[in-house]
Amino acid sequence: MLILVTGASRGIGFETVKRLAARQGSLVVALSRNIKPLSDMVKRSGLHTVLPLQADITQAADLKQVHKVVRSLDRPLD
User: Fold this and answer.
1) Three-class SS of residue 46?
2) What letter does residue 1 receive in the DSSP assignment?
3) What's residue 62's pLDDT?
4) In the chain, pLDDT over 90 holds for what percent of residues?
5) Is 63 exposed, middle or buried (0-12, 13-18, 19+ CB in 10 A)?
6) Which one of 12, 13, 16, 30 has the lowest number of neighbouring Cβ atoms within 10 Å?
7) How open is the CA angle 10-18-68, to the nearest 5 degrees?
8) Long-range CB contacts (within 8 A, 24+) of 34-38
């Protein structure tokens, strides 16, 4: 299962990433403008099922980069 979560560095997005990443067979692409809290959480928890990406979804260039990364994973988004 490939899941994309925006606003993943705090609040509901942050908690959503943690819960989804714990599911068997999941890979969570976690987007945030502020990548540090998200990267720290991934390091502390040892979650290898989270791919943190710094991106602002209001910026076309960032969306293109996210699209490129997701396509490279060769898995459909769920």
Assistant:
1) coil
2) -
3) 97
4) 73
5) middle
6) 12
7) 80
8) 34/9, 34/10, 35/9, 36/9, 37/9, 37/10, 38/8, 38/9, 38/14
Farthest-apart Cα atoms in the chain, separation: 32
Query: Could you give the angle at the alpha carbon of 44 between the alpha carbons of 25 and 67, nearest 5°?
Result: 50
Sheet holding 27-32, edge to edge: 2-5, 27-32, 50-54
Calculate mean pLDDT across residues 72-78: 92
pLDDT at 10: 87
- Separation between Cα atoms, residue 37 and residue 34, nearest integer Å: 7
